[in-house]
What does this fold into?
Amino acid sequence: MNNFTYSYPVKVCFGDGVAKDSLKAELKKYGKNVLFAYGGGAIKKVGIYDEIMAVLNECGKVVTEFSDIMSNPTYAKVQEGARLAKENKVDFILAVGGGSVIDCCKIVSAQAKLDQDIWDLEYQQHGSPTDFIPMGGGCNRLRNRRRNEQRRGHYQ
It folds into this structure.
């Protein structure tokens, strides 16, 4: 076996109230233009959208919204996100929602840095992207908890 080093840096923050402080800390590391990606709008119903927008505004970010990301996003949806990222010179992608939102934005982060179609690169030229827009993701765990609390009357 050949010797090797494998590094896959991931930062995961857990606990009550850590999302806001962690997001502020991460946003300081990147430029002013943020692509805020989310799904069908559940984050608006439970108040997470407003909380995130408040943090983005407090940090002086210019926000471009990329919404309505569906389950199993289409090629066209990925291309829409990449176009938005390029047109708005996005420095950071914030994907909030379930796996489909986060996975869609992973491809958006690569496609937006390419001058060619990512599909052609990978499946015709057998290459891989090497440059990406940095991104962070918030999963739907909090959203589901908030939705359940809202149903029980904790959030109005």
The first strand starts at residue 33 and ends at 38. The mean pLDDT is 88. The chain has seven helices and four strands. The CA atoms of residues 14 and 25 lie 15 Å apart.
